[in-house]
Amino acid sequence: MISTALTGLWYGFGVAFEPHNLLWCFVGVLVGNMVGVLPGMGPLATISILLPLTFGMKPVGAILMLGGVMYGAQYGGAICSILLNLPCHPPHAVTCLDGFPMTKQGRGGVALGLTVFASFVGASWGITEMIFLSPLLVRAALQFGPAEVCSLMLLGLLAGSTLARGSPIKGVAMTVLGLFLGSVGTDLETGSERYTFGLTELDDGIELIALALGLFGIAEFMNSVNQVAPINTKYTNVSLKDMRPSKEDFKKAFFPMWRGTIVGSLCSLIPGTGPTIASFVAYATEKKISKHPEKFGTGLIEGVVCPEASTHSSVQGDFIPTMSLGIPGDAVMALLLGALMIQGIVPGPQLITQHPDIFWGLVASFWIGNIMLVLLNVPLISIWVKMLAIPYKFLYPSAMFFVCIGVYAANNDFFQVGEVVVIGLFGYILLRLGYHPAPILLGFVLGPRFEENFRRAMLISRGDILVFIERPISAVFVALCAILIGSQIYFRLKGGKTPDLEPADENKPVEIPADLAPRRVPATPAE
Amino acid sequence: MQHNLLRELVGKRDFYAGGLMVLLGLGVALKGSTYRAGTLMHMGPGFLPTALGIILVLLGIAIAVAALAPSAPDEHGHIAGESLLPEHPQWWAWFCILMSPVCFIVFGRYFGLAPATFTCVLIAALGDKDATWRGTIILATVVTVFGVGLFSYFLQVPMPIFTWRGAL
């Protein structure tokens, strides 16, 4: 088992070191790091903008680049949190708590330096986990029939929508909406058109890119326009010299870093708990076991490295179910799967054997990309910091152009640019009504496959719906779904609180906008 | 009492949130029922969408009813009471952002990529409250030059840079 994994990895390095793949990986992490730093731009919007550009590329290069954007943005987001106190990227919201006080004490550089190091440790652990766990998962998943696949998807969808931020029931509603949107267009099995209202442009369904850019581009811009406070660049003079941690700092950070890594990797194993939850849980745990919990929030290095390591380990871990089972844990992963599907690659347990170059190339590129990120972030920190000062009024109009041309370039069709306007407006209304649109994408990407497997399962069982609980593996997934729903209802009745953020925050360590919706840049930095 | 309840409703965002889902679900289910549903064993194209529509209606009702319940000021209390419009509605900026892709479509179809890019960025940038004509024109020009270079020359997007009343 281990030896096959290592051979695979060796092969993957061969793929990832091919010059064009190396280049795309570099482009990905560079762009990712850049948008991570820019307040008001998220990895989701960026990946959707870049998606059409990958159509002409080979699938390996495309996925390496888009993956690079994802984890590159995590490095950049930390800079934003520590130096500006802006939790513009949800996973880094907790990092503000101790990161910004450190900056005010003039130790922002040290925090950044150790964050980069902790991120690398966390990511490395996540990658290792991926190398050894994915083949195991695949071996189990290859036994799955349509019924198992179906209930597993159901579990993934439920977890993705209830454990994410915001109200669980609204999350489920968004997932159902996404599933529906995925069914628009020609029905694959019968060839009849659904919900196209006579528009031939809708025959192929709603364009994934238009949906993603409408929900995460236009709707977000409408939400943030004129609400972004001018950025306080008072503390953003950081040079390479400031980043070197003292021996004592390093010692203090060492164990929290590893604890964060472990928490992150555990969180990534639970479907639906992405990096945001991982970082919150890590911070809460660290605070709980600390000898001086009262000092958290005043600029402790532990409070910075622990959530950061956790975020990165969980980001890499999130790729495990996505790549090995074809079940994405969150919207970003759904988008990456969508990118693969556009390239004509069917996600699922057969991916590793059928396209080893994609899987192992991706794994190997994670290492390479993370090393690139360390190299990019440490010596070039002053450049990234300067980017923080780009005002939003320049950012969003330029981004609007990228949205338009991106959607257009997907099919060279103006109709889809119109689609993006409608979806954007609708997405903004949803945002105002307190919905988080991310699960829509999850449902949208999984929808067609869910329907296909559901139909197949029903056909095999001759229309017997009980097949889902008669087959043992499927029954386990269904039971997990039931537990998930049951616990949500239980916690709702008990205290109106989701269980996942609960550990150890009795005394409220987290003072960030309480609805945990930091995709919205707060109007005033909470200073 | 009745009056109070009604007044309370107006401020309850979740009531509308649920209502929207009910409406959407109804639409989906009604339209879905015009497609062939088939049997459980041989599902027709209408089966899953109709089912999803019904689930959406139920979820919408649950969301709306939860909003109606006399909410003790819980964790989410302030969210439930939030008004539909943000504190400072940005009608002009919203309009600009939505018009920007529309301009891209119109200008792209009739005049080509460069004019489309220019107007798209220009209109979007005018939405900012501190926008000046000079600043926005400079920004639009820079993005146009850069964008045309990147997309037309480097990435070969098949859209003419300049054209006059191109394909209708």
Briefly characterize the structure.
The complex is a heterodimer of chains A (527) and B (168). Chain A is an all-alpha fold and 527 residues long.
Describe the structure.
Chain A is an all-alpha fold and 527 residues long. Helix content of chain A is 69%, strand content 1%. Chain A has a two-stranded antiparallel sheet with strand order 1-2. In chain A, β1 and β2 form a beta hairpin. The termini of chain A are far apart. Chain B has two domains: 79 residues; 64 residues, no CATH class. Chains A and B meet through α8, α9, α17, α18 and α19 of A and α2, α3, α5, α6 and α7 of B.
Please outline the helices and strands.
The complex is a heterodimer of chains A (527) and B (168).
Chain A: H1 2-16, H2 19-37, H3 43-50, H4 59-84, H5 93-104, H6 108-141, H7 146-162, H8 168-183, E1 185-186, E2 193-194, H9 208-224, H10 247-269, H11 275-289, H12 302-325, H13 331-342, H14 351-354, H15 356-377, H16 381-387, H17 392-411, H18 414-432, H19 438-460, H20 467-470, H21 472-495
Antiparallel strand pairs in A: 1-2
Helix pairs in contact in A: 1-15, 2-4, 2-15, 3-4, 3-9, 3-13, 4-5, 4-6, 4-12, 4-13, 4-15, 5-6, 5-12, 6-10, 6-12, 6-15, 7-8, 7-19, 7-21, 8-19, 9-17, 9-18, 9-19, 10-11, 10-12, 11-12, 13-19, 17-18
Chain B: H1 2-10, H2 13-32, H3 47-68, H4 77-80, H5 91-110, H6 113-126, H7 133-154
